[in-house]
Amino acid sequence: MNLESNHSAASVSVRNLRKSFPGSGDDQTSRLSVLGGIDLDVAKGEFVSFFGPNGCGKTTFLSVLSGLLPADEGTVSIDSAGQTHVGVIFQNYRESLYPWLRNIDNVAFPLELQGVSRSKRREQAQQLLEFLGLKIPRDGYPYQLSGGQQQLLSIARALIFNAGVLVMDEPFASLDYSTRFTVRDRVQEIWTKTRTTTLFVSHNIEEAIYLADRLVLFSKKPMRIIKEIPVPLPRPRGASILESEDFFRIQVQALKVFKEAMLQ
Amino acid sequence: MKRGIPWGIIVLLALWCLLSFPKLIDPLYLPTPVAVLREFWASVSSGLLPRHAAATVYRLVVGFSAGALVGIPVGLLMGYSKRVYSALEALIEVLRAIPVIALFPLFLIFFGLGDRSKFIVAAWSSSLVILINTMYGVQHSSTVRRMVARSLKASEWQIFWKVVLPDALPEILVGLRTGVSIALIVVLMTEMFLGTQKGIGQMIYNAHLMYDTPTMYVGIIASGVVGYGLNLLLLTAQRKVIHWKGDFQNE
C-alpha cells in the first residue's frame, strides 16, 4: 500500500453511458431511461463534485461507475497502474459499517476478504488510521462513534482497499448540521494526503464547490451533464473561502445554469 | 440497568397467602406456600426433584439442539436462495400448520415409547420456529451491508458468511429463545402421558392422580424455573454475542 503518493489513483473515462429500467406501468415495453448518454473524463487525483436535482439518477450513475450495476450502453474505463478498484462511500453510514466488527476490523475488512492474516491486516489498518490522523478507538465498535466518525471510518476502509477511485454518494446527508463542517474538512485533508481520485455527489451546492476541483451539473431524468464548471480556488480551503468573491461567483453561475435547466 | 421492585411477584405471593392461610380455597386445591415449600425441600433432599428435572432438561436439550441443527441451516438456505425458498416454502407452511401433538402418536409408532420419540417432538417443534426466524433474519438483513461487501469485491460465499450470517444472528437468537420455550412445553406434555417414570411432566401428572397437590405445585414451579433458567442462559448469550443490539447502542 503506497499512501504517500497518488500512485494508485486512477483516471476515469466515461463514454456515452446509458441505462434504463423497466417501466412501472402495465405496458411491459415501456422503459424508464435514467442515464441519457453521459460523457465524462476525470484526471488522476482530481476531486469532482456532482450536483443535480433529487432523483435525477446520480445513485444509478455511481452504481454503474462502481460496477454494482451493468450499463446498457457505453463504457466506463478506469485507468491506473493496474489499479481499478472503486471504493464506495454510502450515504447510510449506520448500515455501511459492520457493527459486529471492531473499528479496526471494519477498516481491515477488505484485507480480510483478500485473505490477509489478522495481525497483518490490523497493523496495516492502524498505520492507515495514523497516517490519516483519525483518532478512533481501535477496539471500540462503530455504534459507539458519532455519525461523522463512522463516515470517516468508511473512507479509511475504502482507502485500505487501495481504491483508485473513491465514489461518495451524499456521504454527509445523514449527518447533523454542525458535524458536516468538521467531516467536510477531514475529507479535504484525507484527499490532500492521499490524492485519491474522488467523485462526490452532494445535494448541497456550497459543499460541492468547497471540496471540488471541478463541479459537474446534472439534468433531470434522463440524466445528462448540463455543464462543467472549474473551481480554481486555492487550497487548503477553510471557512473563509466561503465568503470570497470567487466562491460566490462560481456558486451564482452554477445556480443560474441549474435553474435554467430545471425550467426547461 | 437498574432493576425496579418486582411488584407482580410480591402481589401474587400476597394473594396466595391471603387465600390459602384462612382456607378461603380448599387446601386440596390450593395448599399454603409453607406446605409447598416444605414439599419442595423434601423432594430436593430425597433427590426426587433433581432426578425428574434432570430427565426433562436432558430431553429438552437433546431435542432442542437437534431442532437448531436442522432449523438454522435450512433457514439460512431458504433465506438466501430464492430457489430453495420457493421449493420448500409451501411444505414448511403445511408442516407448521399441524400441531405437533397431533403427530405424537405417529412418532410413537416409528420411534417407540422411549426417549427417542420425545427427542423427535421437541426437535420437530423447535426446528420449525427456529427455521422461520432464521429465514426472516436473512431475508431482512441489510442490503447496504451486502452492497458494501460486493463493492469490496467479496465473493458470494464471503458475503454469506461474513455479512449475511452475522446480520441475521439477532433474529436467529430470537428463534432459539422461542424454540426452547416451545420444546419445553412439548417435552412436559409427552412426559405426562407416556412410557416414562422420570421427568417433571410425569411428576406433576402422578401427583395429580394421587391428589398430592403440594407436589403438583412443586412440579409446576420447577418447570417454570427450568424454562426461566434456559431463557436466561440464551438471553445472556444474546447480550454477549449480539452486543450491537444492546441497550447501550446510541442512535
Explain the layout of strands and helices.
The complex is a heterodimer of chains A (264) and B (251).
Chain A: E1 11-22, E2 31-42, E3 47-51, H1 58-65, E4 73-79, E5 86-89, H2 93-96, H3 103-107, H4 109-113, H5 118-132, H6 147-160, E6 165-169, H7 177-194, E7 197-202, H8 205-211, E8 214-218, E9 225-230, H9 245-263
Parallel strand pairs in A: 3-7, 3-8, 5-6, 6-7
Antiparallel strand pairs in A: 1-2, 1-4, 8-9
Chain B: H1 7-20, H2 33-45, H3 48-80, H4 82-97, H5 100-111, H6 115-139, H7 143-151, H8 156-193, H9 200-209, H10 213-241
Helix pairs in contact in B: 2-10, 3-4, 3-6, 3-8, 3-9, 5-6, 6-8, 7-8, 8-9, 8-10, 9-10
Please describe what this structure looks like.
With 264 residues, chain A is α/β, with parallel strands linked by helices. Chain A is built from nine helices and nine strands. In chain A, strand 8 and strand 9 (225-230) form a beta hairpin. In chain A, helix 6 (147-160) runs parallel beside helix 7 (177-194) and helix 8 packs across helix 9. The longest helix of chain A is centred in the last third of the chain and has 19 residues, at 245-263. Chain B is mainly alpha-helical and 251 residues long. Chain B has one domain: MetI-like (MetI-like fold), CATH 1.10.3720. Chain B has ten helices and no strands. In chain B, helix 5 (100-111) packs across helix 6 (115-139). The longest helix of chain B has 38 residues, at 156-193. Chain B is globular, with a radius of gyration of 22 Å. Chain B starts with 6 loop residues before the first helix and ends in a 10-residue tail after the last helix.
Short précis:
The complex is a heterodimer of chains A (264) and B (251). Chain A has 264 residues and is of the alpha/beta class. Chain A is 36% helix and 23% strand.
